[in-house]
Amino acid sequence: MTRAAWGSRLGFILAAAGSAIGLGAIWKFPYVTAQNGGGAFLLIFLVMVFTLGISIMIAEMAVGQISQQSPVGAYRYFGGRPWSIVGYIGVFCGFLILSFYSVVGGWTVFYIVRSLDTAFLTADAVVLKQIFDTFIADPTEPLWYHAGFMAMTAGVVLAGVQKGIERVSKSLMTMLFLLILVLIARSLTLPGASEGVMYFLTPDFAKVDARMVLEAMGLAFFSLSLGMGCMMTYGSYVSGETNLARSAASVIGLTTGICILVGLMILPAVFAFGLDPAEGAGLTFIIMPMVFSHLGGGQFFALLFFFLLFVAALTSSVSLMEVVTSFFIDEFSLPRIPVAIVMAVLMFILGIAASLSFGPWKGYTLFGMTIFKLLDYVTSHLMMPFGGIMVTLLVGWKACQQVARRLSVDGRPPRWWPLMKPFCRYVAPLLILLVLFQNL
Ligand code: PHE
């Protein structure tokens, strides 16, 4: 069987950016940044993105492209059997992420439905907080949305690489970008908005500690879809001559750009409306309706916003499911359709626990974290950084020559390669380890 492939370099970039840009940039980034005091956190996040992020993305894409295999096979190809364990961990990580990601994806669908109701557009924080809190704590309602979101994810994956992912990714992302610009204009012109801009952009280094650095690193891994083999899998669908470094840079630029724009859309409004920046997971869902209530045609914009947020989430969840399904397809030659369905059901079941942990199961905690929080923490703070260590070590030591050759243009390795090699060999793994150990 010939391996599925992207239609073009643009198709690849859009799909990879579609994977990266999602709930990470629009839901997680703003609330985590706000919780961590703004400016200084943003700066550390950016440092993580432009050091670890860019090199790990290039590393993953190259390893996937050369081996033409999904993570397990790709690690085995370069490192032999023992290394394939890293691939298994990555696949498992994707499984865990999608189980709770789909819960939040379901929230976006709920908010599309809510936007149809005019009474929803209010500037009353108490009402909006209540809508959010009541919904996520409900023992059954969010589960329907979670099921719907998971089913749609599986549906796209079933359509196959080319038709499904590429087509969805190609459209609508531009629209999201334009909409965010409109919303920034509204948010920035609210009275009191400048305080939010200051909060977001002025670093206060007194707030920095080891925990915050780990938060920023975890967020970088999560929002760039790194460390679990997603970019490796997408890279494996690249054929021929595609310039991987340039593609990686485009994906990083697009995603980080969206993160910053989303920060400018949300934080000024948070301050203008007097909401607590430490609000947490509900921040985007509570603050945006307030912005819409101050905007002509607010209901239309609300609908559009939550719809595009849903699409952004879907292109990311599809990439997560692609990692999990392509593992079974590549490793066991199983057919795509039953694999995707069985995996979707299993992830849905684990997601039930994550969803209930906002309501009836709130009290069940481990290390002080609910099931949802624990899944989130273990994946982005431990498993993805671990994957980052391993892929840089692989490229730095085992796959060095092949990757250098693959990245070469006209037979010569790129000018930055002399930096990349020691960075992958020593700096990146040690940096990640240091951040992890500082937190033990
Ligand atoms: N980067 C995605 C987002 O921000 C989440 C994701 C993580 C997707 C890991 C794939 C792999 O929404």
UniProtKB/TrEMBL annotation:
One protein family per Pfam: SNF
Record CDD domains: SLC6sbd_Tyt1-Like
Transmembrane segments: 40-64, 85-113, 143-161, 173-193, 213-237, 249-275, 300-325, 337-358, 378-397
InterPro entries membership: Na/ntran_symport, SNS_sf, YocR/YhdH-like
Entry's Gene Ontology cellular component terms: membrane
Key words, A-Z: Membrane, Symport, Transmembrane, Transmembrane helix, Transport
Domain of life: Bacteria
UniProt subcellular location: Membrane
Molecular functions per Gene Ontology: symporter activity
Name of the featured protein: Transporter
Source organism: Oxalobacter vibrioformis
